[in-house]
Every structure is written in C-alpha cells, then in structure tokens.
Design a protein that fits this description.
Blueprint: H1 3-20, H2 28-31, E1 39-43, E2 46-49, E3 54-57, H3 60-63, H4 72-82, H5 96-106, E4 113-119, H6 122-139, E5 147-151, H7 160-165, H8 169-172, E6 183-185, H9 205-216, E7 221-226, E8 230-231, E9 237-238, H10 243-254, E10 257-261, E11 285-288, E12 300-305, H11 306-311, H12 332-347, H13 354-369, E13 374-380, E14 383-388, H14 404-414, E15 417-418, E16 420-422, E17 425-428, H15 436-454
Parallel strand pairs: 3-15, 5-6, 5-7, 7-10, 10-11
Antiparallel strand pairs: 1-2, 2-3, 4-12, 8-9, 11-12, 13-14, 14-17, 16-17
Helix pairs in contact: 4-12, 5-12, 9-10, 13-15, 14-15
Amino acid sequence: MTDEARLARHRRLWEADHRHLWHPFTQMQDWLGEEPLIVDAGDGPYLVDTLGNRYLDGVSSLWCNVHGHRVPEIDDAVRAQLGRIAHSTLLGLASTASIECAEALAAVVPRGLTRVFFSDAGATAVEIALKMAYQHHQLRGDAGRSEFVALRGGYHGDTIGAVSVGGIDLFHRMFAPLLFPVHHAPQPYCYRCPLAKEWPGCAMACADEVEKVFAERPGKIAALVLEPVMQGADGMIAQPPGYVRRMREICDRHGALLVCDEVATGFGRTGTMFAVEQEGVVPDILTVAKGITGGYLPLAATVTTERIFESFLGPYDSKRTFFHGHTYAGNPLACAAATASIRLMRERKVIEGLPAKIAALGRALEPARALEHVGEVRQRGLMVGIELVRDRGTKEEYAYALRAGHRVVLEARRHGAIIRPLGNVVVLMPPLALSEGQLVELAGIARSAIEQVTARI
C-alpha cells in the first residue's frame, strides 16, 4: 500500500470512528477533537497502527494479552475449532471445548477450587460470584447472611452488582441510587493511608478496620470481595505483605466466604499464576477473565469449591438450581483459545521465567523513582503504577483538569509505546512475553515521557 493510500484509509476510518463509535471510559467531546490512534494489526509485543507505526503494547491491550499478538499456537487452536463449531449453548448441553477448558483451568487454579462456571467478562464473573455466595448461605439455612464487604478503591466491573461492591467514587458515585448497600472498608493504600498511619508501624490497621465491619454485623456477612495483592483500576494500589492472608483469616473467623477477583491479577501478572498463591490463600470463589484466553477472545470463569457447588444439589422439585446463565457461556472458540494459552504457559515455562523479568523491570524503574514529580512507583510482578505528584514533599496531586497522566501517555506514544493513565497514575502492565530488553525499553520510555511532561506543567 502506498503512503497516499494508507493515509486516505486512515482518514476514512478516523471520520467513521468520530461518526459512529462511543468509546468506553472516554470523554467523547475531547475524543472528537483529536486524531485517534487506530490499531490495525498486532505483531508479537507490538501494536501497529493504520499509518504503519509500531508501538510496544505496554498495557497488554487492557491487561489481557499474555503471549503477545498473533501467537501461532493460539491462532491454530481457534482455526481448528472454527472447523468444528463456533458456538453451542451450555444450557442443557455439553461441549468438547468447554469441558477441555474447564479441565485445564481446574489444573492451574489453587488446590481446592474445582467447579468452573463460564461467562463472558470479568464483571459477569463477579456478578455470578455474588449471587452464588448469597444463594449458598440461603440454601444452607443461614438466611441472615445477605450482606457484602468490599474495599474502597475496588473495581470489579461495570454491571450493577459489580459496581455495588466497587469503591471508586469517580466511576461509581453517579449510579449510587441503583446499587445495593455494601459495607466498604478502608483500602490498604500505604502511600496515602486513609487512616493517616504509616507502614509497617501501623500493624496493618486497615485490616483491623475490615474485621470491625464483621464484628459489628455478626452472622450477617455473606462474603468479602477482594482484588488480591494489587487493586488495579484505582491506580495500582499495592497491598502490604500479609494482607490477603489476614482477609482469609477474618472470613474464617466470622463464617463468611472470601471472593478473590483475579480478573486483572490472574495468569501470571503478579509473578505467580494467581496472586493469592503468594500468601498461600485459597479463596472460596475465584473470578478470572482477561488473561484466560491469552487476550484473544472474551471469556470469564467463576471457580468454586466443592462445598459451594454441593449447596446447589437437590431433587429437581427442590428448586435449588443456580438460575443464572449467559448466551455465550463456554463459547467454544474462546475456550479453545484459553486451553491453548494455558498449555503455552506450561510448555514455555512462563511463570518460571518471570522472576528475572520482574527484577529487570524493577531495576529499569529506578530512574523513574528518582524523578522530582514521581511520588511512588508500585510494582507487583509486571503490574506497575507510577504516581505523579506536583509536590513530592507534600504529596500534592496534579489537578484533574491538567490531565497529567494523559499527557504522559501521548508523549509515550511519540516514543513508541502504548501505556495508560489512571488519573495521575501511569500504568505499565505489559504482556508476559516481553523480553527483558523490551521491558527495559518500556520503562525507559515511561520515564522519559514523565520527565518531559512534568517539566512543562
């Protein structure tokens, strides 16, 4: 394609986007005044735009890509499945692809989680977990357990139940009249502690606040919903060591279930296959999505223990059935991609190779930590949040209207990397397949972009 033809195609797509598309989490008035970057192709760790420019995919195409783009083994698995069937329902029928995928998933989740309920997105996986937790207690005769505990700063998706247990005011406040009540406890945000304490002298006072909620509502709490190790969407808020273990102990003491939302943290993002493994915790319910298919197709799963599954068993006329389902639950194409991705993680020893990559990224981030307008760099595995501040000494934030994070993202594009802002936090969350050299390059681009932007605002 000639440069002229490429530019004409880019302009046609640009105009069509502005005529028809409504983008998620995007102020469309700003969007309509800007030229969009239009992704046209992928190539390993790179995204390629309609003008032929290549960018490191520094956020895994929204935290879901694992092995890079156009992976032959996953491509072949999806093509092979297309040669059989693209979709059939799991309501009243079984399917080869969904059985094989459930078997592969059950082999890698924490021991004791055995039952897989498929859906199509992280939010639906969380909705299912909430309904399962509630109905589990009802079916066991513990009808008083109808309430949920969650953390401030939590994000679990954008459906009504998921928003109810979410805790990001910017995203969720508008919808408050539509939500069911949830007890929100302070988040473990050590850099800006909501309790005005300091780690480690605080003795994890934020965990004590969670237990207070349970103590004040004896026999009422059905479950605690938690993003383990790292709260993603609120700015990569890293939890102190031992926090997830404390949450497990609190739930056990008070007879509640622990729901761990690993939609973002699962499949190697924090350095282990699942984040809960770092503290030897097995949740009662685990939710996964994003990385499950390697970033290929929409698929989610809510995985539970046999104890929870058995609560729903009974004669047909007992009506103990879990009356919930999704049209594309267990879609064969998505399941084929997921099975291939999980197999690749084993064959390529992806988890075993992460420590060296995590260490290389950590070293490469050191220059960013020293920047005048970087308050904190938070890293768990290959999940990174770089918090920008106007004043490092006082932790004064940049005004929302300045769009500091967004400006850094635009600058990074000019240097060849796609990253994302969460307010004043710059997020790096690359595919696990990036080499050590590519991770160092990504960190360098982020540092340079931050340095250049903060010098101007």
